Amino acid sequence: MLVDYHHILMQLVIVLLLWVLTRLVRRINRGPRVRRVCRYVWVCVLWIMSFFNLGMYWTAYPIALWMILALGLIFIQLVHNHEFIYRRYWPVFWNWSLIYAGVVFIASLFSGRLPLI
Length: 117
Hints:
Layout: H1 5-28, H2 32-81, H3 86-109
Helix pairs in contact: 1-2, 2-3
């Protein structure tokens, strides 16, 4: 099936509006908590839009890889520090989650209607 350009344009407008909103919020309040909350919001919004693009069936694969990424980060921290500390884990996890959610979202924009296997 062909790619729905209207749908892609609407989602890109949503991403652009969210970017403008986060820039405004960061200008008003420059604390680390605001940066962290903006990162959470970005990851959640990108995953939700990817879910609508991919559908229920195909969304399971990126989420499974996301879990493997989380376990890999835990393993790296255990090997490096010989302990697992949440305070060190969560910022790294959310940074990598934002990158991964962005890649999944971009891939989902051009996935079209993937067939059910």
